[in-house]
Model the fold of this input.
Amino acid sequence: MNHNSDVYMHTQLKTSTWVLITGASSGFGEEFARQYAKQGHALVLVARRLDRLQALAETLRQEYRVEVVVEQVDLSDLGTIVRLQERLRERGIAIDILINNAGHGLQGPFVDAPLGAALSMVNLDIASLTAVTHVFAQDMRKRGRGKILLVASLLAHLGVENFAVYSAAKAYVLRLGEALHRELKSDGITVTTLSPGLSDTGFAKTAQMKVTPVLRLLMMPPAPVVRVGIRSLDAGRMSVVPGLPNKVMAMFIWGTPRWLHQAVFSRVMKAQ
Done:
């Protein structure tokens, strides 16, 4: 019986389409896991919080009967990313879809925050995301196929007062994704960048963000944001902003001088 189980598991590892999701223990990452599991994909869930990952994995296994691999990884340690890839390779797992979702934000005046907090954002939102993308894109190029979704932010489109480092880091993610969309297309790899506005993911609380009444009206639940991300990746789009109000804000940013849209966003973020 055990032998048959091992054979079944081995077959699953060889034939399933694998999705790797970083920051999978909560927020968008958790929602991506649920939606891809519902589609029948096998999952590799990556985050630091092992208990949350294991609970989510067990739920998805029972509900959708999919294979779920849990990997407790601190992505701020770049060496762990290479070791993660090696462990997956040893198990015969080739990542077909990469959801590069892990990120960290913090609201507040730049000079008031500890330098370590700012550099932690740069490390996770830029360096780690770059490393994860590079490592798994290399594997995808060898196979001649793959999909990569980078999660940026609406704030990537402008410098935002009291979100200086976060908005700058997400601008990097957006520009990286736009460049790689064209660069990797000939290798059979689709790269799409998702730029959500404020969403009900727990980000605001973690970032110690003041959610004004205006922002609360604009807040989206994670499920429709993730659906837009998955559909846009499947459609091969370069970049997408989910939600009509967020699209309108993005158009306002693109169509007005920096001094104007930055002043308006500063007021929106501070409105009582």
About this structure: The domain at 2-270 is CATH 3.40.50.720 (Rossmann fold). The CA atoms of residues 6 and 12 lie 10 Å apart. The first helix runs from residue 2 to 15. The beta strands are 18-22, 42-47, 68-72, 95-100, 146-151, 189-194, 239-240.
